[in-house]
Amino acid sequence: MKITYCVLCIFSACLLFFPALLPAQDSRGRIQGIITDQSGAVVPDAKVTLLNVNTGVTVVRQSTGTGLYLFDLVDPGSYVITMEAQGFNKFIQENIVMQAHGDITVNASLKTGSIQESVTVADTPEAVEFNSANKELTIDSKMASEIPRFDRNPFKLTLIAPSAVNTRGEMQPYHSWSANSVDLGGGTNLKNDLLVDGMPIGMGQKNTTPPNTDAVQEVIVSTNSVDAESGHSAGGGISITTKSGTNEFHGTAFYLGR
What we know:
Layout: H1 2-17, E1 29-37, E2 47-52, E3 58-62, E4 68-74, E5 77-84, E6 90-98, E7 103-105, E8 108-110, E9 118-121, E10 136-139, H2 141-146, E11 164-166, E12 182-184, E13 193-196, E14 199-200, E15 202-203, E16 206-207, E17 216-222, E18 237-242
Parallel strand pairs: 1-7, 1-8, 6-9, 13-18
Antiparallel strand pairs: 1-4, 2-3, 2-5, 5-6, 10-17, 11-12, 13-14, 15-16, 17-18
């Protein structure tokens, strides 16, 4: 019992005196919106279901008395939202693509009718960032997988950003300086914040082992990191999000010859 108490005391002291060790940024985003009828009146207590297309996991929310709903801490991926209320047709929004710490608004206007009938919208809703002043460039999974690279280093995708300048001749996969050897909108060489799935991987000016390039879903380059969550460095931010699992077995193989 005394040993357990001592361990808890040590752990609490570490949290108090070494806050820099704690994760400070979250790679997840949120989906929100307001539900109305055809006259513009809000629809309270509507059932809103969020489906992760890749994993099959669903989350259910109820709209508030003002017709608002919110899904927070949403993992990057593809989603479908279904909204239904008594006396209205079911509303389905497909092709929702959530990127790392994205902010997507999906508003719905329900039509009077049977809940067995549905209105499906296939257009992809745009992500508009209302809660951050960061200037970011997102390199999505398609670009990350199709751009030819011989070095197997996902951090090199940072150089796609117009404001990024490589300050080191090579960026080899396990070179601990290479990920941070880039200027982001100014003289930020070796001063950038490095994150993988929201967790800091920087060790001083260096980085720990970078993730496998085949496991990378997207790379976000921030050149104007003014938010407090991004304020751990004198430079910009490089955030890598890895792919989540699905209900299907899959894998990759590669050959690198020189």
